[in-house]
Design brief:
Blueprint lengths: L2 H8 L6 E4 L2 H5 L3 E6 L9 H16 L4 E6 L4 H13 L2 E7 L8 H8 L3 E5 L1 H7 L15 E3 L9 H10 L7 E6 L3 H9 L5 E6 L7 H8 L7 E4 L12 H14 L8 H13 L8 E6 L15
Parallel strand pairs: 2-10, 3-4, 3-6, 4-5, 7-8, 7-10, 8-9
Antiparallel strand pairs: 1-2
Helix pairs in contact: 3-7, 4-5, 7-8
The structure holds pyridoxal-5'-phosphate.
């Protein structure tokens, strides 16, 4: 590992396991812990660090001085990348989906302040960028430039995600997490023991493509995972009153901050499945809090 990344990781806080005590869980005799990757770093979002770590190590090893990636106007991925770039002295370029907004979102303002060059890309061109899946596959890359596909979806990202599984010192049956590109899920799938199943909750509508994408990232076929497509609540970053009420009650009761795009929706879905008795009594569930709390700014009004 490159020494700059080792030094950076030394500043991180541990991602602890927090037991959730709840009458609903007692009633259905399931146990739930939250793996707190939101605690890792106040700015660098949990699963984004896990995914970026070995990709950035590769970039530094290749002698890259610039990392180029893509994302939306609230992207946790670009936000984390911009901040790490500033800390490591790497130039960063963000290809942002859609026309430049009249006022930059808080996330974009942060990125800009940390030195990321923002380039706005039309929605159709943005879609085309998704075909470039290898670090050196973006057309017109020059020497020293390293390409990171959307969401950091690279085989190397799986190695960093796998490390979080090694930190879990409890026996458990199900590992739940929210899914965007499915890269984090793929990393978990490679690392859990045979008796554990991984259950993803898609944050996007019509996310049937995830099965293909996850299999493309995995080094072989695994049958220990599944992605639930039923809790997008109308689409990516869409919210409704039921979700926001659930989150407010959960945060108050358990003192764990949530955001509505990923972890809030996952827990909302998980609680609903528990209520519908989709889990056997005595099952032990770990839900991964993937972080993302910065993206909360601007997403808190119900829009569905
Ligand atoms: C990006 C993100 C995800 C989705 O991760 P994928 O690896 O793309 O599936 C989940 N949670 C949070 C908080 C994120 O920022």
């Amino acid at each position: 590992m490159h020494s700059a990344l080792i030094s950076l990781e030394k500043t991180f806080q541990p991602s602890t396991l927090t037991k959730v005590n709840d009458v609903l869980l007692e009633k259905h005799q399931v146990e739930l812990w939250i793996k707190r990757d939101d605690l890792l770093h106040p700015i660098i979002s949990g699963n984004k660090w896990r995914k970026l770590k070995y990709c950035l190590n590769h970039a530094l090893t290749m002698g890259a001085n610039t990392v180029i990636s893509m994302g939306g106007t609230y992207s946790n991925h670009l936000h984390a990348l911009a901040y790490i770039g500033k800390l490591l002295g790497l130039k960063t370029v963000g290809l942002i989906r859609g026309e430049a907004p009249a006022t930059l979102t808080p996330s974009l303002l942060d990125m800009q302040q940390w030195g990321m060059e923002l380039r706005f890309v039309s929605r159709s061109d943005y879609r085309l960028l998704r075909q470039y899946k290898q670090w050196n596959s973006l057309p017109n890359l020059t020497a020293g430039q390293y390409w990171l596909p959307e969401g950091g979806a690279e085989a190397l990202a799986l190695l960093g995600v796998a490390e979080l599984v090694g930190e879990i010192d409890k026996s458990y049956d199900v590992l739940c997490l929210p899914c965007g590109t499915g890269t984090t899920l793929a990393g978990l799938v490679t690392a859990v023991t045979d008796n554990v199943s991984v259950l993803g909750f898609a944050a996007l509508k019509n996310a049937g493509f995830l099965t293909v994408d996850v299999n493309a990232l995995l080094p072989k076929l695994y049958d220990n995972w599944q992605i639930n497509l039923d809790y997008h609540l109308g689409g990516f970053a869409n919210t409704n009153a039921a979700l926001l009420d659930f989150m407010t009650a959960f945060e108050l009761k358990h003192q764990i901050p949530l955001e509505p795009v990923y972890t809030g929706k996952m827990l909302y879905g998980l609680y609903d499945l528990i209520e519908k008795q989709r889990f056997q009594p005595n099952q032990r569930i770990i839900a991964l809090h993937t972080g993302g709390l910065q993206g909360k700014r601007g997403t808190l009004t119900p829009n569905a």
